[in-house]
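S.,

As promised, the LLAZDA3J run. Input:
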Amino acid sequence: MNSDHIQALFDRIAPVYDELNHGLSFGMHRIWKQMTVKWSGAKPGDTCLDLCCGSGDLAQMLSEKAGRTGQVYGVDFSAAQLEVARDRSERRCIKPPIHWIQSDVLNLPLSDNQFDCITMGYGLRNVVDILSSLKEIHRVLKPGSKAAILDMHRPDSAFVRTFQQWYLDEVVVPAAQRMGFTEEYAYIAPSLDKFPTGREQVRLAEQAGFTTATHYPIAGGTMGVLVITK
Ligand SMILES: C/C(=C\Cc1cc(O)c2ccccc2c1O)CCC[C@H](C)CCC[C@H](C)CCCC(C)C
Ligand SMILES: C[S@@+](CC[C@H](N)C(=O)[O-])C[C@H]1O[C@@H](n2cnc3c(N)ncnc32)[C@H](O)[C@@H]1O
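Predicted complex:
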């Protein structure tokens, strides 16, 4: 799938995205996102960036950490996802307001060395060029600061892998089918097969110029967080 197809896919599923994520992960996606925010090192007063922000969960969690003296930016190329993110944050009266930017994360309209911390949730697997994405994160991050990148993975354990594939085929795709989004959710499994392993992601991060890179498998290896320091 090219970038336009990915953008159109996330535009289409925007109305059901939050409900499906919550139901299919039994609410656990919020725990994995909280771990990601913690590992990004976000603290009061920080200027924070959430890439591939979608409906804005991670950006909202960052704003709780950054507080009134901090600033949070959320970037996504899907206008429909950003609309959900903007509505949700306005309804919650988040202060100061989050800056929502519609852009490709491979070409950010942001300055070099601007951010104290960066998060990305379920975005890296969907970008068309992972190394370029990591280089762009490196460019906008301040020296010494961290990015934490959460995504779904194929687990090492054959047993958990079989369970994951069963869950995708028998629970995720049928649930999406009932809402008219079969192909959109059937895309997850092949995207997992193409996604670099944690060890490969560490090597790519080093190639992008990061001084430290560690990958933490979570949820039995079905999820993982890459933590990188500029
Ligand atoms: C956070 C979730 C999904 C994000 C998501 C990512 C994508 O790339 C998509 C692409 C296309 C359409 C939709 C998405 C998308 O929603 C929700 C997680 C749902 C998972 C399928 C839940 C998997 C649960 C594990 C099998 C649980 C195993 C835990 C256990 C400890 C072994
Ligand atoms: C699976 S959603 C994740 C949303 C949110 N981070 C979350 O954790 O719920 C992936 C998001 O990445 C966005 N995305 C994918 N590739 C992108 C790119 N190259 N530039 C900007 N956004 C992108 C999609 O529009 C979509 O909203």
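The radius of gyration is 17 Å. The chain has a mean pLDDT of 97.

- D.
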